[in-house]
Structures are given as C-alpha cells and as structure tokens.
UniProtKB/TrEMBL annotation:
<dbReference type="InterPro" id="IPR013325">
    <property type="entry name" value="RNA_pol_sigma_r2"/>
</dbReference>
<dbReference type="GO" id="GO:0003677">
    <property type="term" value="F:DNA binding"/>
</dbReference>
<comment type="similarity">
    <text>Belongs to the sigma-70 factor family. ECF subfamily.</text>
</comment>
<dbReference type="InterPro" id="IPR014284">
    <property type="entry name" value="RNA_pol_sigma-70_dom"/>
</dbReference>
<protein>
    <submittedName>
        <fullName>RNA polymerase sigma24 factor</fullName>
    </submittedName>
</protein>
<keyword id="KW-0804">Transcription</keyword>
<dbReference type="InterPro" id="IPR013249">
    <property type="entry name" value="RNA_pol_sigma70_r4_t2"/>
</dbReference>
<feature type="domain" description="RNA polymerase sigma-70 region 2">
    <location>
        <begin position="34"/>
        <end position="100"/>
    </location>
</feature>
<dbReference type="GO" id="GO:0016987">
    <property type="term" value="F:sigma factor activity"/>
</dbReference>
<dbReference type="InterPro" id="IPR013324">
    <property type="entry name" value="RNA_pol_sigma_r3/r4-like"/>
</dbReference>
<dbReference type="InterPro" id="IPR036388">
    <property type="entry name" value="WH-like_DNA-bd_sf"/>
</dbReference>
<feature type="domain" description="RNA polymerase sigma factor 70 region 4 type 2">
    <location>
        <begin position="132"/>
        <end position="182"/>
    </location>
</feature>
<dbReference type="Pfam" id="PF04542">
    <property type="entry name" value="Sigma70_r2"/>
</dbReference>
<keyword id="KW-0731">Sigma factor</keyword>
<dbReference type="InterPro" id="IPR007627">
    <property type="entry name" value="RNA_pol_sigma70_r2"/>
</dbReference>
<dbReference type="GO" id="GO:0006352">
    <property type="term" value="P:DNA-templated transcription initiation"/>
</dbReference>
<dbReference type="InterPro" id="IPR039425">
    <property type="entry name" value="RNA_pol_sigma-70-like"/>
</dbReference>
C-alpha cells in the first residue's frame, strides 16, 4: 500500500492544533505537513512493536486515514500522543486480523474461539472504559497527556518531553502528580468498604 505523498503549503511554524483544524476543513496539504512532521517517529515506534515492515507501513497509512476522517474530534494541543493512540489501536487491529487468519488456516473449526485481549489492548481499553477511564478523565489535561505518553505509549522521559514540548523535569513532575491524582480519583470511584463489626448478633 502506498503512503501519502508529501505536499507543501504549511510551514514548520504551524502548530499541530492549527494543522488539525485545517485537516478538519478538508485541507490535504495540512495533513501532508502533519505526515512529514510525525510519520518518521510513528513508523520507528511501530517497527519496534511489529517485525513485519509491510504491516507497519499499512498501519501508518491507516493512522493518517483516520486522522483525515476524525481530525475534528481532536481536543487541541500537540498531536503526538493522539496520533500514537490511533496508531497503537490500528496495530492491535492488524495483529488481530493476522492472528485470526492464522487460526483459521491451522486450527480445527471446533476449537476456534474468541482470542484473549493482549496486554496492550487491555491497557488501551482501560483508558476508555470502566473506572480507570473515568478516573483518567477527572485529572487535569496536562497530567493526563504525560500519563498517556509515559505509561500507555511507553515513551522515555526524553521522548515524552520532545513529544509534548515540555522540559524533561516537567515530565517527571507531572508524571508523579498524575499518578497521585489518578490514585485519588480511583479511590473516590471505588471507596474501601467499611469493615463489618467484629462478632455476631447476641
């Protein structure tokens, strides 16, 4: 599958948020600028998680197709974390298709069943559904971005700092605050039940 061909029309001074607003308005040149800016590191991270170069290329392509279709849903700010979340989900989808095809080819029909979700799928799902997702929505956006970058995306402090455009020390500080706020939010959602009084009825 061919990748998007680079186009010009936007400069390096354009923020990701401005480019995404332009993409939401149907500006293909803005999408190409985002591609030029982010495709390299996205492809590098995908190839670390996927040994098949063709799958990595297809996932990268699918990521930017998704960006083209859903740019209006971006909440603003730098696009890196949002892009990687999309790419990681597309990679999960691609792996699921591959594994399902392999099972169909090799397994008897009576043993085919639903596959167990991978660790990455469980983490990504947890950030959208259930108590973790609810708690994550309750912490401040700048802390949530750092938590996604360092925990979900698995970025180092340096990579997260570059991605979010903040100093490494700020990443570390926000990561500690984010974990504390997340624990507090989870505690509010799932308070420890009051122990039953010792002894039974007289």
């Amino acid at each position: 599958m061919k990748l998007f061909r680079p186009m010009r029309g936007h400069g390096e001074s354009d923020t990701d948020a401005a480019l995404l607003r332009a993409v939401a308005d149907g500006d293909a040149a803005a999408l190409a600028t985002l591609y030029d800016r982010h495709a390299g590191w996205l492809h590098a991270r995908l190839t670390r998680r996927c040994a098949d170069p063709e799958v990595a290329r297809e996932v990268l392509q699918d990521t930017f197709v998704t960006v083209w279709r859903s740019a209006a849903g971006h909440r603003g700010g730098e696009a890196g974390g949002w892009l990687w979340t999309i790419a990681a989900r597309r990679l999960v989808d691609a792996r699921r298709v591959q594994e399902r095809a392999a099972r169909v080819e090799t397994a008897p029909m009576d043993v085919l069943g639903a596959e167990a979700p991978s660790a990455e799928e469980r983490v990504l799902a947890g950030l959208e559904f259930g108590d973790v997702g609810t708690a994550l929505d309750r912490i401040s956006p700048e802390l949530r971005e750092v938590l996604r970058a360092t925990v979900v995306d698995g970025l180092t402090t340096r990579e997260a700092a570059r991605l979010l455009g903040i100093p490494e020390g700020t990443v570390k500080t926000r990561a500690m605050r984010a974990r504390a706020e997340l624990r507090a939010a989870l505690a509010q959602l799932s308070p420890t039940p009051t122990p039953a009084p010792a002894g039974g009825p007289a």
